[in-house]
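User:
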Amino acid sequence: MQPNTTEAMQRMLAEIKQGLPFGESEAHLCSGLCLGCPKKVMAFIEDEVAAWEQAMANGQIPTLGDLQQLGKTAKKIHRLMVKNKIIL
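Assistant: Predicted structure:
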């Protein structure tokens, strides 16, 4: 049985938190290469994750489109972190 969209979003949020450098210092994010400002994109994805966690806590049910959009955004940010050599 496939998970519902709420369970899928919870799993995706957990994967995003694990796969991206949440809580890293500004000094670490801004060292070396700076393609696309890692500090700003991390602030953006942290806000998105927090907003979805709050929305689901308030009973909002994500749609498949919401899942697709957040997944697409997270993948782009992950690629940016790899290009900036913050994640290997």
